Amino acid sequence: MSTEIKRGRLGILVGGGPAPGINGVIAAATIGGIMEGFEVIGFRDGFKWLAAGDTQHYTKLTIDDVKRIHSTGGSILGTARTNPAKSETSMHNVLDSLQKLGVKALVTIGGDDTGFSASHVYRRGEGKIRVAHVPKTIDNDLPLPGSTPTFGFETARHYGVQVLRNLAEDARTTARWYLVISMGRSAGHLALGIGKASAATLTIIPEQFRGAPVTAEAVADQIIGSIIKRLADGSAYGVAVLAEGLIESMGEKGLISAVPGGHLERYGKVVRDDHGHLRLGEIEFGRLMKDLISHRLEAMKIKSTIIDKDLGYELRCADPIPFDIEYTRDLGYGAVKFLLSPDSEKFGAIISFVDGKMMPLKFENMLNPKTGRMNVRRVNVDGESYDCACHYMIRLEKADFEDQAQLNKLANIASMTPEQFRERFGYLVGMK
């Protein structure tokens, strides 16, 4: 590493939701920073206390403090979703607090929103504070080069697959359907990764609608079509995985329209966080979809037991698998290396690795000039990887409507004539 900076403090903070591997970044950045002459301090609860002008909520970090935390889940510094860029006062407090504490360099660990806040610290600090942001989210939706994942994703998928496999066996044993809502605010990477690797019956993600309006009714019909097709094959069970990002794609109005009488409060509150995002966890999306599907199945005289299950909180603080342990060590090391480099005097950056080489990505190149936030990396639904996922799902396809014998069988299960079934479900595959 360069030895250009030898004085002052290196600060570390964590923002946004938890992800496996956070402690690995903290450990690597702490050890690397101390070895390069920094005094390292960790701020509690992200930007929360700094934004309030509180300079007391920090901890001096030593090598002994962090040398064995790299394989543990959670965050020894906690985390919070405070957005200091939301007001002039909050941002002033952050910069003033960092200056008072003698912080010359800052490592932020977080997702899109924390990266946005970090970019403001660098820009408003006018070079007085060097900033390196380590991208973190189990959603895997940050636009890193190529197919580079965000840390935490691989661990979350690993444990998510274990849960899905258990649910699939329970579904088979008890002849029921599980409706699993997987975390993933804006993209379907986690839902698809879990669904594909666990051989779920089908997975539904926002990207598959290719920009067309997403409705709860269309999502329900896809699942109902899968239930009917499974019954036609003699199976009364299955597991459907839904990305929670479908909630944002539907929007508040879309959710209200799906609820009888528009009483969305039956399924939770519509609440937004400091960054303006819907708090998806406040809405019982799985229960809403279960009720909608059950009501439609009853109208077709189809009996099916459906259990809704949210999947995400169980994954966020899991102990990281070796992939993320190694990856986060690279990222923490890379963050310190960047902060010690001449480049960090010129720009703040998001730390990334490509082919084993650290690649700092300038904030201004990663942030959307209109929104000020990073663009979302979505699932490529035009690639062979997604085609492969769809190939092994059980869902209505054009062939089901073109084969008269199959169409008759499906229609009979739904208590419809073939013409009625085509009219009712054909739109799902462009056969109406």
Structural account:
β4, α5 and β5 form a beta-alpha-beta unit. By secondary structure, the chain is α/β, with parallel strands linked by helices. α8 crosses α10 and α8 crosses α17 (404-413). The protein folds into two domains: 9-151 and 320-366, Rossmann fold; 156-315, Phosphofructokinase domain (Rossmann fold, 3-Layer(aba) Sandwich). The relative contact order is 0.15. The strands form two sheets. It has a seven-stranded mixed sheet with strand order 3-2-1-4-5-10-11, with helices on both faces. The protein has a four-stranded parallel sheet with strand order 7-8-6-9, with helices on both faces. The mean pLDDT is 93. It has helices at 22-35, 48-51, 63-66, 88-100, 112-125, 153-174, 189-197, 216-232, 245-258, 285-299, 313-316, 322-339, 343-346, 363-366, 384-391, 398-402, 404-413, 418-425; strands spanning 9-14, 39-43, 58-61, 103-110, 130-135, 177-182, 202-204, 238-243, 306-311, 349-354, 357-362. The radius of gyration is 24 Å and the shape is elongated.
Quick description:
The protein has 432 residues and is α/β, with parallel strands linked by helices. 43% of the residues lie in helices and 14% in strands. It folds into two domains: 9-151 and 320-366, 3-Layer(aba) Sandwich (Rossmann fold), CATH 3.40.50; 156-315, Phosphofructokinase domain (Rossmann fold, 3-Layer(aba) Sandwich).
